[in-house]
Amino acid sequence: MDLFIVVPILFFSIVLHEFAHGYTAYRMGDDTAYLMGRLTLNPLKHVDIIGTVAVPALCYVSGLPMFGWAKPVPVNAMRLPRPRKSMGLVGLAGPSANLLLAVLCAFFIKLVLVSGLLSPQGTAQTVKFLVYGLQINVLLAVFNLMPIPPLDGGHIVEALLPLNAAMAYGRFFGRWGMYVVLGLIITGLFRYILYPPMYLVVSLLGKIFGI
After folding, report:
1. Sequence-ordered list of residues with C-beta below 8 angstroms from that of 136, at least 6 positions apart, any chain
2. How far apart are CA 40 and CA 85, in angstroms?
3. Which is it for the CA torsion 69, 196, 153, 106, positive or negative?
4. Angle of helix 152-160 relative to helix 83-115, nearest 10 degrees?
5. If you compute the radius of gyration of the chain from its CA atoms, what whole number of angstroms results?
6. Please, how many CA atoms are within 13 Å of residue 116, restricted to the half-sphere of its CB?
7. pLDDT per residue as tens digits for the range 129-182
8. The model's pTM
9. Which residues are annotated as catalytic?
């Protein structure tokens, strides 16, 4: 695992993920993140001890694909139109940003391969960088779409459920959700949940762009 390549990609990807949450909320009427100085791409504003430091380190030591998360951008649901539904859209914005980055990486892999503008060594290094970007961003999107609060997928599920069911769902996972997520990571079980859809998306993008 090339840390000097992977770590910058991971940091940028998770920062953009959180920025997408904050920007979506801002566009919908909540300027909480903006007023707190969190509507920024400055990575130092988004560092989370567990998600940005401990989990990536655990992935490196255990040989798992590098991923993590940043400190959640503050969102005041009461300042959003239709708070519960709007929070679902805010939640969807983060994984969508990562999927967009993955698509861009696939596009530029194809462009580099067919352009012939770089030397063979330059082409190999650039493609390697972009492949890491593709894989990391797909993994981040799939991970965050798991339907377990506090992950984004949990907020999306809460937005789709009837009110009473959503409240019960939120109460349960509000207490146990992070323990479930950390348990899946520590035991390695998450790979059986995340790898199949991750490889499916990567393969699909490869077919679409012919790479």
Report:
1. 6, 9, 10, 13, 65, 66, 67
2. 25
3. positive
4. 130
5. 18
6. 0
7. 999 999 999 999 999 999 988 889 999 999 999 999 999 998 888 888 888 888
8. 0.88
9. 18
